[in-house]
Amino acid sequence: MAAPRLVWTLFLAVVFLGGLLAALPDRNVYPVTGEIFVHELERELFQDAFPSVHNNVEEIPPDVPITFHARLLGYPDLPRWLRYIQRGPYETAFLYGSPTAKEKKAGRQTIEVKAYNRHTYETVKQRIIFNIGSSPDEQLPYQAEFFVKNRDVEEVLPLEAQQLFQQGVDSIWDQDDLHIINITSALDRGGRVPLPIEGRKEGVYIKVGSIYPFSDCLVATKSLDNEARCNMEQQPVLACHDRFYPVLIIDWCNITLMDLSSPSTAGPVLISGDGVLEDGSEFEPPTDAPEKTFLYDYLLTILLPLLVALLLCLFLTYIMCCRREGLIQMVHHNTIHGNTEELRHMASSREVPQPLSTLPMFNVRTGESINPMQGRYDSAHVPLILDQK
């Protein structure tokens, strides 16, 4: 009887675990090199795949908290070029990044995404296959990076927000053949987390590229007058500064222009020798290391501090014992001590009359004293007049 019960228990456990961990079909996406790629993790798609939706007749409310976890299949984290952002369990999650030619050579990359229901602890997973290809306009020699101060990164990832920004850049670049290359949060560039005040944003860096040269407005941002104003923390004077305002606030002092049309100057030629390996060679460490004496290190770390301490002791001894001020202080101390002892000796051996104020029945006005032992009569019965006499 025990064996059938065990088999039945295992069967129920498998069915239960299978119900908790559901899976969506694989999805193929096609990012291209040199352009921003954004993939939105749809909450409704994962929410409809939770087992509780199929088991319950009632509809699940749309405000179920869902968190996602994404990783490269077989690895604990995402690839270097891909980033994940979700502000909270009730917010939309995004996978975004800009692949390079290195990722294109690597071929396909499979990202495993798991969605967690924070109420029922159910899990739904999906595999997203990234097929990285080449962009037809891969060579964009003129690139400009803008810093948007009043936006967070998840606010500019949707397609509508990208189109709005691109329209503003088209108007100042005087052409409509721009491509957004990359979007980066200011926190990834070393920025600070803003204070929890309404209207404070982290900021976003948006890089765009084109095959056409920069416009006069963009070139004017790097003029000497505008750079001087930026050094004084003042916005430069530009004719195109209001093309984005008030929807987007651009920091015109934090704009970067990159001209890749001209070939870069060749770097220093490496000469084979010490520190430079030839192609196909391996590093061979020396077998016999030369002997090294540590005498100078010992003198520097041990004897030198002891010598300094000895000199300080001699210097303090000279000041306290050999200087005139030190001798005067010592003589003065001895004089006070001797005078104190002398006064104590005189006080113990003196023979002087006892002060009148210490005698009994002392009259302050007359200076007379009356021995209380004289007379055995009761002074309380003496008339007051006689007593005054």
Q: How would you characterize the overall build of this protein?
A:
The protein is an alpha+beta fold and 389 residues long. The protein is built from eleven helices and twelve strands. The radius of gyration is 46 Å and the shape is elongated. The model is unreliable at 6-20 (pLDDT under 50).
Summarize the structure.
The chain is of the alpha+beta class and 389 residues long. It is built from eleven helices and twelve strands. A hairpin with a 5-residue loop joins strand 7 and strand 8 (123-130).
Helix content: 25-40%
- Mean pLDDT, as a whole number? 78
Tally of extended strands? Answer: 12
The low-confidence runs, each spanning 5 or more residues with pLDDT under 50, are 6-20
User: Could you tell me the strand content as a percent range?
Assistant: 15-25%
Which terms would index this structure?
389 residues; 4-stranded antiparallel beta sheet
Tell me the layout of helices and strands:
Blueprint: H1 2-20, E1 21-23, E2 27-29, E3 37-41, H2 43-48, H3 51-55, E4 66-72, E5 82-85, E6 93-97, H4 101-106, E7 109-117, E8 123-130, E9 142-148, H5 153-156, H6 159-173, E10 179-185, E11 204-210, H7 216-220, H8 224-231, E12 256-259, H9 295-322, H10 324-349, H11 384-388
Parallel strand pairs: 1-8, 2-8
Antiparallel strand pairs: 3-6, 4-7, 5-6, 7-8, 9-11, 9-12, 10-11
Helix pairs in contact: 9-10
